[in-house]
Task: structure prediction
Amino acid sequence: MAALTEQDWQIQLFIYNFFVENERPPTYQEAAAAFGLGDEDGRETYQRLNDFHTIFLDPGTSNIRIANPLSAIPTNYLVKINGKRLWANCAWDSLGIPAMLGADATIEATLPLSGERVTYAVRDGALIADGGLVHFPLPFTQWYDDLIYT
Result:
């Protein structure tokens, strides 16, 4: 597999900036248009980025499902940050969004096993929480085996 090009990396950055600004990922057509590319070139770029695990496409589509730590679909982890509502893929990613943006955030989470709703925050880079525990049932090396359900 050939390495990613400089343009691929620029499109990757575009995806993140667009995602944060618009609270959703760009379509491959939107990314292609922003770079003066045809739709097929946009689709191929998204596939390359997926193949290199810089984004994760919904299986069988060219739609971004995940651009870690961001989720394109609502999850149990809503991150309120800079006046935006962004979804994280998991508890770990809910802390990754404020780290990525260097901003304070409030996270509203629903615990997967109990259904209990909890709120925690990041202020000045520090976690503000009333305790709790995050459990990762699989080692990191196995997360991409089934990324949606890991």
